[in-house]
Design goal:
Helices cover 16% and strands 31% of the residues. It is built from 2 helices and 6 strands, in the order ββαβββαβ. The termini are far apart.
């Protein structure tokens, strides 16, 4: 199983690091423009991302945290970003301490 996915495939709560911006298809002017805009918004290789919210209809648009910013994108725009997913944080276990009450 690969831990690298398109950001458009991510679900709420997923976290990762951007490893590629754009599909590097330099003959498609629309793809180049989208890549440029994503870079200007801070979607650069090495940036940490977390998916915060998904829209109700078709899970679109999506809101995410990019380093210290919040940004909303359509899923078709997020498809231009490849992300290496981080493992989900382990749930915090609450340990009950047994205390003895002096008699």
């Amino acid at each position: 199983m690969s831990d690298t996915i398109r950001l458009s495939q991510a679900r709420r709560g997923d976290r990762g690091v951007i490893v590629q911006v754009g599909g590097h298809c330099h003959h498609d002017e629309h793809a180049l423009e989208l890549e440029r805009r994503l870079l200007e918004l801070g979607f650069v290789e090495g940036a940490r991302v977390e998916l915060l919210h998904e829209g109700l209809l078709g899970r679109d648009p999506i809101a995410m945290k990019v380093d210290d910013m919040r940004v909303a994108l359509r899923r078709h725009e997020a498809a231009g970003l490849t992300v290496r997913m981080e493992p989900a944080p382990a749930p915090v276990a609450v340990l009950a301490a047994t205390e003895q009450v002096p008699a």
